[in-house]
Amino acid sequence: SVEHYLIIARSVTYAQRMQRALARAGLRSRIFRAPRDLTDRGCAYAVQIAAGDLSAALPVLRGEALDPVSIFLSQRGTFQEVTP
Fold it and tell me: Which of these, 54, 70, 72, 75, could form a disulfide with 79 (CB 3.0-4.6 Å)?
């Protein structure tokens, strides 16, 4: 599987806002329920972006005051938390 980043959002509404902001910046993403072991919240959502898009995505999200709860790099089925 291709490596990618999961940007954890505090709610589905937040995730949708993130996705719209990224789309306006020309970045593709998809939203799904965050894997349970990545969050202490039962119903957090993840915004998935390509590995090469993180450096472009973070300023876009910051500019819209959409701070991620956390960010994980997904590689071959394993998740590693990264510090933005």
Answer: 72
The tokens of 16 are what? Answer: 């949708």
Nearest to 29 by CA among 11, 12, 55, 6: 6
Long-range contacts of 27-36 (CB under 8 A, 24+ apart): 27/53, 27/56, 27/57, 27/60, 28/53, 29/57, 34/6, 34/8, 35/6, 35/79
Render pLDDT for 3-32 as a digit per residue (tens, 0 to 9). Answer: 999 999 989 999 999 999 999 999 999 999
Exposed / middle / buried, residue 52 (Cβ in 10 Å: 0-12, 13-18, 19+): exposed
Model pLDDT for residues 31-55, shown as the tens digit of each residue: 999 988 887 766 789 999 999 999 9
Locate tokens 């970045």: which residue? 27
Q: With residue 20 as reference, give the H or E element that holds it.
A: helix 12-24
